[in-house]
Structure formats: C-alpha cells, structure tokens
Specification:
By secondary structure, this protein is of the alpha/beta class. It contains 8 helices and 13 strands. A hairpin with a 2-residue loop joins strand 11 and strand 12. It is globular.
Length: 295
C-alpha cells in the first residue's frame, strides 16, 4: 500500500447564505508522506476551506459538510510503524471520538498561517514553546526546543523580547518556528510570505524546506505566487472556481447558478520538470514494511 499522510474521498462543503451558495467538492485526494504539496487557484475557489478540513479545524456532519472517507496516517519514527486513523469512524463515536480528533490535531499537525497569530504579550520563546506545553512537555524541555529551532530561523539570540516588538520578517520566522516546534508530521501553510519582500520570502521558504525535509514532514501549502509554489513543491493541486453548475456527482439540491470550487488537475515534479499526473492524484511511493490500521 502507498504511504499517504492524508486520504480523502467524497468531500462536500458548502456555505448557505441569502446571497449565494458555494460548494467545495473533492472526489478523491491523496497526499504523499514527506512531500510538499501546493494548492494553486484564484481566491474563492476553496483552497483554505479544504485546508481547514484536512487540518481538523472544522468537523464534518454539521454546518453543511460531509465526507465519505477521511484517513490520516501517523508515523512512529523509532519503529517505522504506521497507524492509520479513520476520522469518519471517530466522528461516529461522538464526544470520545472528538477528543481523539483533538488529540490528533495537537500531536500531529502544525499551522503556519498568513497572519502568524502570535500572542503579543508573550515573549518570542514563550510563543514558540506553547505548542509543546499544550502537549504536556515540561517547561525546561519546551524552552530548549524553542531555542533550538529559533536558532535556525533568527539571526539574533534575543528570544526573551516580546513578539510584538519583532519586525515583519522576524514575525513570520517566529510563526514558522512555533508551527514546527512540536515536530508535527503534517504542516499546513497558508500564504505565509505575503507580507515579505522577495529575498525574505525565499529565505523563509528555504528554511521551511530544509527543516521539513530533514524531519520528513508533510506540507500542504497555499501560495498565490505560482513561481514560489513550483520552486518549493513536490506536487501541485490546481483548483478552479466553476460558476456554471455541478457535475452529476453533486447533489441536485444546489441551484445551477451557485459557485463550485474543486481540484481540476494535478502535477508532480519529476527530475526537476513538472508533469501532469493521474487526475485521481494517485502518487506511487514505496510501501512501508510494517503497517497497522486502527479506528
């Protein structure tokens, strides 16, 4: 079996308002482990909505959302063992399942967002150490890890000043350090360099790529800069917003005039060249020697 960090089938999510409905529909999407996959497409085509779904930031079965299959695979580095978590089955368990999903999000996922969303009243080190503390790591070990990863990303060693006093470039690098501090297996990146000049954009992405490849992190990145996306990604998912109606797979309760966003084409970087790949996004990678599936 292929090693996928995320597998999802039959995702539908729609907004229902008096002005307009919009549906994100994903027939099938597999995200290979240890890859950097970029979502490209115009604003409003569902990239961020999909990312928040894959990142377990929104639940399914409520608020106009449904999914047929959703699995996340966890890697245990010491044993090379894989455990696949069935999110649909966890949702069926109710409150206990939601607690397990929340634990998966804290343990396996990191979020590097456009705004950074650092806490201004905390120091740089305290901001970066926070995900570790939430996962039960001691203050001493959390501070050690925070200083270690900040050392990769910042030129100075003044980690005890308030995050509020950081420059724009520093702020983005601190946000990246916080996203990576707890060694997430899946990192969600949403327009992280939009406020930076080109040299600093590339510096931040160079550092991100170096760290995630060393730690075999799976990255899902939204970046409206197609050149940067192609320079730093292994795979590309191209989205399109289609205002002309639904395919036959879409529920007929949606009006034909409603908006429709979905992935329409997929590309992989092979020997430095981008090539079109299977529209079902089936990437073939080496199977694991040992694998376990649990709900």
């Amino acid at each position: 079996m292929d090693q996928y960090a995320i597998e999802i089938r039959g995702l539908q999510h729609f907004y229902d308002s008096s002005a307009r409905r919009f549906l994100l529909y994903v027939d099938k999407l597999n995200i290979p482990m240890g890859s950097i996959t970029s979502f490209l497409g115009a604003s409003g085509c569902g990239k961020t909505t999909l990312q928040t779904r894959l990142g377990l930031l929104r639940t399914f079965g409520v608020n106009h959302s449904a999914v047929d299959m959703f699995r996340i695979t966890e890697r245990f580095s010491r044993t090379s063992r894989l455990v696949t978590h069935d999110i649909v089955e966890l949702l069926k368990k109710g409150k206990s399942g939601m607690l397990e999903i929340e634990s998966l999000r804290r343990r396996l996922m990191g979020f590097y967002l456009q705004t950074g969303e650092l806490l201004p009243t905390l120091t740089i080190k305290e901001n970066v150490a926070m995900p570790l503390r939430l996962n039960g790591v001691s203050i001493r070990e959390a501070n050690r890890r925070a200083e270690e990863i900040l050392g990769y990303l910042l030129d100075n060693s003044d980690f005890d000043k308030l995050a509020f006093d950081s420059s724009g470039g520093e702020y983005q690098r601190i946000a990246l350090a916080r996203a990576l501090a707890h060694n997430p297996q899946i990192l969600f990146v949403d327009e992280p360099t939009s406020s930076l000049d080109v040299p600093n954009k590339r510096r931040v992405l160079d550092l991100m790529a170096k760290i995630v490849h060393e730690e075999k992190t799976t990255v899902l990145m939204i970046n409206h800069d197609e050149i940067l996306a192609r320079d730093y990604s292994d795979f590309i998912v191209n989205f399109r917003a289609n205002p002309d109606g639904w395919s036959d797979l879409i529920s007929k309760k949606f009006r034909p005039c409603d908006g429709f966003g979905h992935p329409v084409s997929f590309e992989a970087k092979v020997d430095g060249t981008w090539v079109a790949v299977d529209p079902k996004f089936q990437f073939h990678v080496a199977p694991s020697k040992e694998e376990e599936h649990v709900a």
